[in-house]
Amino acid sequence: LIAFKPIDGSHNATCLSTAILDAAEEFGIQNHIQVVTSDNASVNSATFKLLEESDRMKGFQVIDCTVSCMAHALNLTAQRILEAIDCDQNQINENELSKDESIERLEEPEDHKDATDRSDAAVAMIFRIARKIVAKIRTSNIFSEALASQQAVMGLPTLRLIWDCCTRWNSIHAMVQRLIKLQPAMDIVC
Fold first, then answer.
1. Using CA of residue 2, residue 55, residue 13, residue 19, what is the dihedral sign?
2. pTM to 2 decimal places
3. 44-54: string of b/e by CB count within 10 Å (b at 16+)?
């Protein structure tokens, strides 16, 4: 990472390649770039093709100098798996919850036939429960304040629960990890 450049207007390949070239020239590295890592957006492929064709950057070849971001690819894969086992984070959101709603246990659907289906259903149920707990606490000032107070009483750092978001890499992991970390305080509050 060498720069953040504002791009006015459309974020098309021409604008992106110009911004990259300007930043590379600013640091004097335009002929020394060995590799570029990016997500899989189609505009990036077109951008890299323009960089390869540019007289301002020598030696850059798309085939040899571009690498897809592994974290991005893994996140997309994880999101597809979660969708396949019905763990869509949009199932529970702040707008669906009323202030008076209790945190009830979600039951596993009875129509699952084999162990894989039951395992998938269990994972989906765990994520739905985790999201519901996070939603209830984050949307309630009473629960949020009680959780913060209990963390202080227990000598824990005051941390907020994390709500997962499909555009934030590893956010479901961060959500579950934070729930586990705060479980002792939550056991008392909830």
1. positive
2. 0.51
3. beebbebbbee
Pair 24, 54: CB distance under 8 Å: no
Whether residue 91 contacts residue 49, with contact meaning beta carbons closer than 8 Å, is answered with no
H-state helical runs in 6-140: 13-27, 42-53, 62-65, 70-84, 115-138
Residues 6+ apart with CB under 8 A from 25: 56
CA atoms within 13 A on the CB side of 28: 0
Q: How far apart are CA 157 and CA 65, in angstroms?
A: 44
Q: How far is 107 from 90, CA to CA, in rounded Å? A: 18
pLDDT, tens digit (0-9, with 9 covering 90-100), for 8-57 = 888 899 999 999 999 999 999 888 888 888 877 888 889 989 998 988 88
| 137-172 as b/e: b if 16+ CB within 10 A | bbbbeebbebbbebbeeeeeeeeebbbbebeebebb
Residue 106 CA to residue 157 CA, distance in Å, equals 30
Return d(Cα 11, Cα 100) in angstroms, integer: 44
- What are 188's two structure tokens? 């008392």
